[in-house]
Amino acid sequence: MLNFNYSIPTKIFFGKGQIEVLGKQIKEYSSKVLLTYGGGSIKRNGVYDDVVRVLKSEGIEFYELGGIDPNPRIDSVREGIKICREEGIDFILAVGGGSTIDCSKVIAAGYYYDGDPWDLVIDKAKIEKSLPIGAVLTLAATGSEMDSGAVITNMETKQKLGVGHPSMAPKFSILDPTYTFTVPKSQTAAGVADIMSHTFENYFTLNDGAYLQNRLAEAVLKTCINYGKLAIDKPENYEARANIMWASSLAINGLLSYGKKPVWSVHAMEHELSAHYDITHGVGLAILTPHWMEYVLDDERVDKFVEYGVNVWEIDKDKGKYAIAHEAIDKTKEFFISLGIPMSLREVGIGEENLEKMARAAIYHKGGTVGNFKPLIYEDVLEIYKAAL
Ligand code: NZQ
Ligand code: ZN
User: Fold this and answer.
1) Is 284's C-beta closer than 6 angstroms to any atom of ligand 1?
2) Which tens digit of pLDDT belongs to each residue from 70-91?
């Protein structure tokens, strides 16, 4: 196990009714807030009313930035920074899923930067500090509620890039599972796939000596498998929504990667799909994952797949190594299918036309190779895209 410094600074308020702490938490930082949200789901399901009621009852002045798109755009970031500067706002309250929270994080960092905020996305070294942000999570998926990263899309340059800085981590996040009852089946499924993918990215490393972290990762995966379908079939099942919501935060908040050095691969390949075709992040991950697994499976890596198959899918450990590995990969794919996720690129409107361009971009954005479980070069990424067609 490698050395690490544990630091997960976000306070979590988990459970039904936790919105009541919102006012007090914000007041530790500010009384003038930018309230950010997406396309309007929070207005339809009552979350907006809850938030506004609490803000008003605490006398907190607020301005709004709505309409933040899934795969949030740099244009929304620019708009948010402008409002904050014009109105003298010093706190951002993100109410929504990963897109709203990510956009808010970059508004927070961009507030202190003189140039165009896209510069920060390209070069995070330019980020020095950020406005404080808080989040009310409405979709369990990205873990943005408890990490310091954000992913922003530039439609003009067709780039979707990750950026992160410790100051961008939310000061607090409110996780009320009942706020996710209205998440549509397709987004619930994509969210579960995203949580599993974060876990895979942290789990699939070689000879890491991080036994504990790997068992924690398996627990997160088993939680997704146990509750994913239930949350889709019974959207108001509190236990399912609660377990998935907490899994979303734990998959990416550092717990699973401390002491290891995972370099992510499927995410790098997926971000190119979303950048070029604006598809749902979790769907792209689910399509690519089984193909990535089959592609990297070899003698050096088979034991890790055996660990995954036996511990997560409870496959008979006396079967041959490769039999276990292939069965585990098949089960992963079948699970995504059971959630109703389309499992080929063509089904989400992606043909052969841009595969080479996207493979080149994935390699370029990752500085030469993608991932480190098995470092992938251009030809590898292209093969995986082709297999996923
Ligand atoms: O926009 P609204 O109207 O709110 O509707 C959203 C949106 O259409 C809807 N939704 C959210 N909560 C809902 C709801 N509908 C009904 N009831 C609710 N309670 O769901 C749709 C998707 O929302 P979005 O925020 O885009 O989804 P998600 O949370 O999956 O975020 C995806 C983005 O996060 C990035 C992805 O790349 C993508 O851009 N990621 C961020 C990460 C991070 N910050 O650490 C890591 C991830 O790997 C990921 O890359
Ligand atoms: Zn993800």
Assistant:
1) no
2) 999 999 999 999 999 999 999 9
pTM: 0.98
Please tell me if the CB atom of residue 311 comes closer than 6 angstroms to any atom of ligand 1: no
Does the Cβ of 76 fall within 6 Å of ligand 1? no
For ligand 1, atom 14, the nearest C-alpha belongs to 183
Q: Where in the chain is the domain with CATH 1.20.1090.10?
A: 184-388
- 184-388 falls under which CATH superfamily? Dehydroquinate synthase-like - alpha domain (1.20.1090.10)
Q: State the span(s) of the chain assigned CATH 3.40.50.1970.
A: 11-179
Which atom of ligand 1 is least distant from the CA of 144? 44
**Which ligand has an atom closest to residue 252 CA?**
1
Ligand 1 mean position to 138 CA, how many Å? 9
Q: Could you read off the pLDDT of 193-220 as tens digits, one per residue?
A: 999 999 999 999 999 999 999 999 999 9
Pairing of strands 159-164, 149-154: antiparallel
CATH number of 11-179: 3.40.50.1970
